[in-house]
Amino acid sequence: MYYIDVILPIPIRQAFTYSVNKDEALFLKPGMRVAVPFGRSKVYTAIVFRSATAQEPGYPTKSIDHILDEAPLINSHQLKHWQWMASYYLCTLGEVVRAALPSLFLLESETMVRLKETELIDESILDDDEFQVVEALGHQQTLHINDIRSILDRHSVVKVLQGLLEKDCILIHEEVQERYKPRLKTFIRLRADLHQESALNEVLEQMSRAHAQRLALMKMYLLTADPNTEDISQVDLQKASEVSPGVIKALLDKGLMEQYVKQMDRLDFYPGSVANLPQLSSHQLTALEEIEDYHGQELPVLLHGVTGSGKTALYIHLIARQLEAGNQVLYLVPEIALTTQLIQRLQAFFGEFLGVYHSRYNLQERAEVWHNVAAKKQKARLIIGARSAIFLPFQNLGLVVIDEEHEPSFKQHNPAPRYHGRDSALVLAQHHGARVVMGSATPSLESSYLADKGNYGLVKMPYRYNKMLMPQMELIDIREGYRKKRMTGHFSERLIEQMSESLESGSQVILFQNRRGYSPVLSCSTCGVVSECPNCDVSLSYHEYQQQLRCHYCGYSMPVPVECPACGSATLDAKGLGTQQVEAEVKELFPDYRVARMDQDTTRGKKAHSRLINQFEDREIDILVGTQMLAKGLDFAGVKLVGVMNADNLLSFPDFRAHERCFQLLVQVGGRSGRQSEQGLVLIQAFNPYHTILQQVTQYDYPAMYSQETEERRQFKYPPFYRVIRLTFKDRNRQKMQQASRWFATLLRHALQVEILGPEVPVIGRIRNQYLTHILIKFDRDLSAYAIKETIYRAENRFKGLKEFSTVRIVMDVDPY
DNA sequence: AGCACGCCGACT
DNA sequence: GTCGGCGTGCTC
Ligand SMILES: [Zn+2]
Ligand SMILES: [Zn+2]
């Protein structure tokens, strides 16, 4: 007997050992999948983690069910990277596997139920539930356990099934279905000999009476001869020859045409590249040389280039060199939804090499990209993807591009693994010996700091491409405006005046309404009460479209009440999104121009976002009102003026990064203006325009922001000088949760000579009826994170031994920002 | 994480 | 009396 260690995709911090026979032992290698029985009855997909040994473990083992792969699905680079991730981000390998593998590869067994093929079932011995199940099985041969749950309208159906099993009515079995199915499509073609015109004519003559069939056959001949058509489906021919399906069926029956099946590509196919590499300016050339120089020294590069400096063109040159060398390239972007423009641009140069990977792809599509990358297929040599693309089976990664490096959305918050896409990609690149370039117009403080320390090479591009000037920034004091009653709604006189001028000259305008995390609520104008979620400590948000109130945290929903539940008055008032209000005001101020809104509401659908962008690009919209999404890497040629409705509320967030984020956001939004011809103008309305950050924004004074912020971070022990690990305690019982967190904090204070903050109740103290509290562990980044994490684990183990806290869950988040 | 076992309140 | 709630422990 031989034994293998496997990883199961579950949050348990240990490997499991299964027995295999000799043949299996020789065959199985790390990274292959095996189906294993686990627990009572379920069969799970597990990943072989350690090859077989003859060493018998000290406990009984089960044997594997069967082997799922002929060759490892996961390569050694990946296993190494995933192990790093689990240990750095304090999660289990199983959790990493869950996140990393397209779920298609992680089959679980499904419990299926069938009627036993006996004569007649004596229905009198069945109770109501049992009868219902048997009746349903009469209609449908097999039922999934979930079907039975919905038939009986309850979750626990095991008892019922057991009863039926005892009465010998049904069979239960566990089924594992291989769910990856290549997409097959059926096409038709002429019988081989009919490609000869003479042969065809002969046939046509013989069928002089079947007019429609003749027509279809002739059309088929023409379509086949056309070099532009490839495969012809039955429907294609029907449409082309305008005959009924029966006609074509008749031709098939006669054997004049035949069917064949072809495996189709599910992924978008990008046509081959047409464009030459973009011409670089002398500034860009210098930057490119500097980058390559640092790369020669094996340093990742931080490319700090102002908006419009042409960073993408540099990436394109770097990518081209890697592709020429036959290497794979990963291009990470913060949010794939926002990359239509980027994909269009890259496909002009690298069409045939380009693959895209993100969470909006369905399971089959993701599996297909995975296979393409693993096979080093040409069409997957350059992968554009969101953070999860770091899990793909790269083998010879030559370059990782991390675009908009400063974007906080690179960090995954829930569920585990709570990893940072950029930081994990850096480690991945290190494992591969790949080069890295991280780009931003407003680098994150962490990255700038590491560049300062010499961990990264820093390359600057302070000028816009084509000598365009940076947009001019101007602050508008709206406190004055409100005091003197000079405001029209949210608009200052200056903003209105500039908008008119801009619109009249034919330019487009972007208005930025930045209320982070703000969603519309319903409040009573009589008593002021806002409807709250019964399960969470948050107000319900108002969904105009569906006329309901919904909780974003637990999904609770209720119809919009007519009367205030607190005081009974019918004076409920929906406060719309900030963007909605601004949009309404704009329509009133500029009735002759076309206004559109870009926020969570209007970009709900899959394509809504890119449709809006295209409309704006095509100048079908004059004024675009939007939220943060406007700040991210979009290029609009026709925009001269950008207005920021209220800069203060960016600064008022209780987050140590509020200032940094404000600077980044404003500079990025401002960068949307004046990209093509004239110098752009950015008007920033603020109640306190003298705030240093706002002053630094108007001067584009990144160095000043950087030195001021780093000083504060150093003083208050925040990243990048200190590392932060956040522990969240959760329980339905508030007291128990509080006690547990206090116990844990005390233990940590004894065990660690570092700063422990809390327990402290977070902004939202209850979600899904679970009470929450935080403990923050802060320690100098030069201390060994490894040792501290070990201590946390030891504390957790002791904690788990305490019965009184057994229901309390601890969520660990490393670098929780 | 699932999942089953087992113990207690509140209904036919 | 039974049903279903949830606390408890286990999974190679
Ligand atoms: Zn809720
Ligand atoms: Zn009221």
UniProtKB/TrEMBL annotation:
A Pfam family matched in the record: Zn_ribbon_PriA
Subunit structure: Component of the replication restart primosome.
Its job: Initiates the restart of stalled replication forks, which reloads the replicative helicase on sites other than the origin of replication. Recognizes and binds to abandoned replication forks and remodels them to uncover a helicase loading site. Promotes assembly of the primosome at these replication forks.
Protein name: Replication restart protein PriA
Record: residues binding Zn(2+) 2: C533, C536, C551, C554
Source lineage: Bacteria, Pseudomonadati, Bacteroidota, Flavobacteriia, Flavobacteriales
Co-factor note (free text): Binds 2 zinc ions per subunit.
Protein species of origin: Aureitalea marina
Stored SMART domains: DEXDc, HELICc
Family classification: Belongs to the helicase family. PriA subfamily.
